[in-house]
Amino acid sequence: MQKILAWDWPVRIGHWLMVGGFILAWLTSESESLRLVHALAGATVMAVAVFRLVWGVIGTRTARFSDFVRRPAAVHTYLLGLLRLQPAHFTGHNPAGGWAILLLLGCALLAGASGWAIYNDLGGHWLEELHEGLASAMLLVVIVHLAGVFSGSVLHGENLVRAMLNGFKLGHREEAIPSARPLAAVALLLWTGATAWWLVR
Ligand code: HEM
């Protein structure tokens, strides 16, 4: 195996926008004076998640849902390998990580939509409870996600965080994606900025 381009720019920029938005939304969640910052951070996470759904269909091979959403049997086999400390190596997302990603995107969309409704004085106390519950569920999945990233990095001797930054992972030459798709990343940034602004205006 050698270092090959595995993550395109939209995947990487979208990921770190979601991380930044998620952290900022948590830090500002209790503050009345930072309500706008909280709403902007949440809207950013939601806008990226919407883009990611589309990119999961039309994006590069490793970005596609068809590449990383696998049957429960594959998740089971992967987790058994992980328990034996010998997980199978994947150039894209592993089968367990793939489901964590779906959960994260689902939580991002639902937490964002409920937050937007609250911001616009829709719903009542129950919606606020639901929004907080979704945010807590998301935090739980993020913790599991981080445990998966850490264990995968250690057991494969591969820095997965660095890979999410520079796009390069270990793999066979024929598994490399042909382009990092910089123009699609510009579209992601324009979409996210415009949507987040429109949602909180
Ligand atoms: C500092 C905290 C985080 C770190 C270090 C981190 C790191 C990573 C890494 C290394 C991957 C690639 C995993 C692989 O190789 O299969 C990944 C994927 C992913 N992470 Fe995180 N993550 C963090 C927080 C988050 C948060 C807060 C969210 C959601 C709000 C999130 C959502 C995702 C998603 C959706 C993917 C899939 C990327 C894609 O295919 O678009 N991550 N993360």
Q: What would the CATH topology be?
A: Fumarate Reductase Cytochrome B subunit
Q: What is the CATH C level class, in words? A: Mainly Alpha
Total E-strand runs: 2
Q: How many H/I helices?
A: 8
Uncertain residue segments = none
- Adjacency order of strands in the biggest sheet: 1-2
| Overall average residue pLDDT | 97
Distance between the termini: 49 Å
User: Which bin fits the share of residues in helices?
Assistant: over 70%
Class computed from helices, strands and strand pairing: mainly alpha
Structural summary, described in words:
By secondary structure, the protein is mainly alpha-helical. The chain has one domain: Fumarate Reductase Cytochrome B subunit (Up-down Bundle), CATH 1.20.950. Helix content is 71%, strand content 4%. The protein has 8 helices and 2 strands, in the order E-H-H-H-H-H-H-H-E-H. The chain has a two-stranded antiparallel sheet. The longest helix is centred in the C-terminal third of the chain and has 32 residues, at 125-156. The mean pLDDT is 97. Residues 11, 14-15, 18-19, 22, 45, 52, 63, 93, 97, 101, 104-105, 108, 142, 145-146, 149, 160-161, 164 line the site of protoporphyrin IX containing FE.
